[in-house]
Amino acid sequence: MNIFDHEFGDFKMVDLGNFFEDIQKGAMDSGYELFLTYGIKGMKHEMGSKNPVALANKLIEFFIGYEEYEKCAKLQKMIEEYKKECQIK
């Protein structure tokens, strides 16, 4: 795939692997931000997710690959708090 380079006024090749990796990373970061904003309950009730715990676990798996352990820890804490809350009811 070619993309126009405004600096040099010419087209150059784009590494599609990096391009799609950047898109995936952006999507995962957006998903993480949604979890921070809504929490697991909010993801289920306000955003309509059928299994927000599974989504959070997928995000954790993804972020482990990027060594973003702080994000993993926050997501894991959300999962644990949600599960405790569900057991109390």
Explain this structure to me?
With 89 residues, this protein is mainly alpha-helical. A hairpin with a 4-residue loop joins strand 1 and strand 2. It contains three helices and two strands. Strands 1-2 form a two-stranded antiparallel sheet. The chain has helices at residues 16-45, 52-65, 69-88, and strands at residues 2-5, 10-13.
Name some characteristics of this structure:
mainly alpha; two-stranded antiparallel sheet; 2 strands; 72% helix
Structural class designation: mainly alpha
**Strand arrangement across the biggest beta sheet:** 1-2
Q: What is the residue-averaged pLDDT? A: 89
Q: Characterize the biggest β-sheet.
A: 2 strands, antiparallel
- Oligomeric category: single chain
* Cα distance spanning the termini: 54 Å
Beta fraction? 5-15%
Helical amount: over 70%
Number of strands: 2
Provide a short characterization of the protein structure.
By secondary structure, the protein is mainly α. It is built from three helices and two strands; from the N terminus they run E-E-H-H-H.
List the topology elements.
Blueprint: E1 2-5, E2 10-13, H1 16-45, H2 52-65, H3 69-88
Antiparallel strand pairs: 1-2
Helix pairs in contact: 1-2, 1-3, 2-3
